[in-house]
Design goal:
single chain; 102 residues; alpha/beta; Rossmann fold; 4-stranded parallel sheet; 4 helices; 4 strands
């Protein structure tokens, strides 16, 4: 078995999720399908203080190249910060619609 192609951070917003556990499972499945090492899974909600900063610090700490979320809405303002720093964003909803995740 070869080494993963990079590190990924998962993020689920509890206030946007219908089922946090299912969303976390989908994030893990997509990481596996994409041959990424899921190094940390974050769960934020509407009360999370400075979510973009916390996400970016986590990405930097783990040298992650990818963030996996159920939908782009889970990133909020963080989407722009990720794109500006070259971090790839994968959405489990998009993968599910193409039949790519387990």
């Amino acid at each position: 078995m070869s080494a993963p192609r990079g590190n990924a951070v998962g993020l689920v917003r509890a206030d946007l999720s219908e089922n946090v556990a299912d969303d976390q499972k989908a994030v893990r499945a997509l990481a596996g399908w994409a041959d990424l090492e899921l190094v940390e899974g974050l769960v934020f909600d509407a009360a999370t203080d400075m979510p973009t900063l916390r996400l970016m610090e986590t990405v930097h700490r783990h040298q992650a190249t990818v963030v996996i979320v159920p939908t782009a809405a889970h990133l909020g303002d963080g989407y722009r910060a990720l794109r500006e720093t070259g971090i790839e964003v994968l959405c489990t909803a998009a993968a599910d619609s193409r039949g790519e995740s387990a």
